[in-house]
Design brief:
Shape of chain A: globular
Helix content of chain A: under 10%
Order of helices and strands of chain A: EEEEEEEEEEE
Number of strands of chain A: 11
Strand content of chain A: over 45%
Structural class of chain B: mainly beta
Oligomer: heterodimer
Radius of gyration of chain B: 13 Å
Structural class of chain A: mainly beta
Number of helices of chain B: 0
Shape of chain B: globular
Order of helices and strands of chain B: EEEEEEEEEEE
Radius of gyration of chain A: 14 Å
Distance between the termini of chain A: 38 Å
Chain lengths: 113, 110
Amino acid sequence: GQNIDQPTEMTATEGAIVQINCTYQTSGFNGLFWYQQHAGEAPTFLSYNVLDGLEEKGRFSSFLSRSKGYSYLLLKELQMKDSASYLCAVRRDRGSTLGRLYFGRGTQLTVWP
Amino acid sequence: EAQVTQNPRYLITVTGKKLTVTCSQNMNHEYMSWYRQDPGLGLRQIYYSMNVEVTDKGDVPEGYKVSRKEKRNFPLILESPSPNQTSLYFCASLSGNTIYFGEGSWLTVV
């Protein structure tokens, strides 16, 4: 597998901003995904970064630095429904592993009123 | 509507009794994959398939088999299930930068 690290748990209050970091070590990097997963449900797509920089999509933004092997997901104006696990996943393209995805263990975010 | 459908959604079975979890996608995707998800371990890839008749092992293939006889279907086979295969299983298909997950199959082996 690949080394993908993200914090296990985070907490924040409603209306606040939270940043979830993800670091990775891989060769043949070909994109980083962020997914949201509520307990017992399938992951849902949030963002995809393949070039350096910030991608903004409503209350959610994702940043990538390929040279540092680093990404973060920024959630603004937190709502109770944002309480979920956030998964960082790296796509690696190299030889026979073309298109493989490697997931981090997820960050469980709890939003308090 | 783009869909990945897996069945059964919930199953309790006994050790050693062969079972198959089906997965079907209606998007004509070439790439399909199976994951298992366990507490504290995240999503781990079991097998994946780049196209019909092309399958490869993921990170945790032991105890599983797959087949890809046609593009839309990618069944996961447990020839002799054991309790350590109790898990939540997800099938997924990928096209470009978008992954579509099935709803998940809760499997308990007693």
